[in-house]
Amino acid sequence: xxxxxxxxxxxxxxxxxxxxxxxxxxxxxxxxxxxxxxxxxxxxxxxxxxxxxxxxxxxxxxxxxxxxxxxxxxxxxxxxxxxxxxxxxxxxxxxxxxxxxxxxxxxxxxxxxxxxxx
Length: 118
Known about the structure:
By secondary structure, the protein is mainly alpha-helical. It contains 5 helices and no strands. The chain has helices spanning 2-10, 12-27, 33-48, 51-77, 84-117. Helix 2 (12-27) runs antiparallel to helix 3 (33-48) and helix 2 runs antiparallel to helix 5 (84-117). The two termini are 25 Å apart.
């Protein structure tokens, strides 16, 4: 159990890299500066384990996801009826953004514990 918890807390960056790659794939554009910047920050974080970036980056990512959830709700509201397309958009979007928020929270907690120990 302790090994599983250690693995989950220390692999948040890898899960976020997967989420960024999924986002990059969905944009269908090879040149995506936002995805490239997010990947570089996460790779930097994996290599150096900077405590300040480990606290600030997940907070920014959480706020961006909350903003995108509001945009998603606004987009779903534009449908004339809550049909299959609207349901699919809402449920996949919510799963993606809430999952990213959950993983960001794990990353935040991991680095917050590291700062409190120091």
